[in-house]
Amino acid sequence: MSNRLFESLRVSMEEAIVPQPPDPERERLQVFIIGSREGVMETIYSLHHRGFAEVNDWSPLLPVPESGELMSVLRRERWVGRSAE
Predict the structure, then answer these.
(1) How many domains does the chain have?
(2) What's the domain range around 81?
(3) Sign, Cα dihedral of 2, 8, 11, 16
(4) What 3-state class would DSSP assign to 48?
(5) Which residues fall within 8 angstroms of residue 73, CB to CB, at 6 or more apart?
(6) What is the rounded distance in angstroms from the CA atom of residue 42 to the CA atom of residue 10?
(7) Nearest to 29 by CA among 9, 57, 66
(8) How far is CA 84 from CA 5, 53, 54, 69, 79, in A?
(9) Contact (CB, 8 A) for 79 and 25
(10) What is the Cα–Cα distance from 71 to 60, expressed in whole angstroms?
(11) Looking at the domain assignment, is residue 3 inside a domain?
(12) Which of 26, 30, 42, 72 has the maximum number of C-beta atoms within 10 A of its C-beta?
């Protein structure tokens, strides 16, 4: 592997790991769906059908500690100070 490729991969990984400073004009929002596998997936598809979010925008199913349930997370940003239209 060339040194240039290795350096490029290292820089890319550092950018992914180091949190970026928050943008004061944006707010991060997170939507959680928690329940059974079937319930979470049904809700994701229902929200997609209503135009809320693309199915692939949700995280993979993740186990909820000590509950036996699964969850999926949708992360979005909104502009601060702008009304929703």
Answers:
(1) 1
(2) 23-85
(3) negative
(4) helix
(5) 30, 31, 32, 58, 59, 62
(6) 39
(7) 57
(8) 43, 16, 19, 33, 9
(9) yes
(10) 8
(11) no
(12) 72
Amino acid in position 9: L
> Is residue 85 situated within a structural domain?
yes
How do the pLDDT tens digits run along the chain, 85 residues long? 445 544 544 544 455 455 566 677 888 899 999 999 999 999 999 999 999 999 999 999 999 999 999 999 999 988 887 766 5
The one-letter code for the residue type at 75 is: R
End-to-end CA distance of the chain: 50
Could you tell me if residue 18 is inside a domain? no
Residue with tokens 């199915």: 55
Burial of 44 (0-12, 13-18, 19+ CB in 10 A): buried
H helix count then E strand count, the chain:
2, 3
- Look up the pTM and report it: 0.65
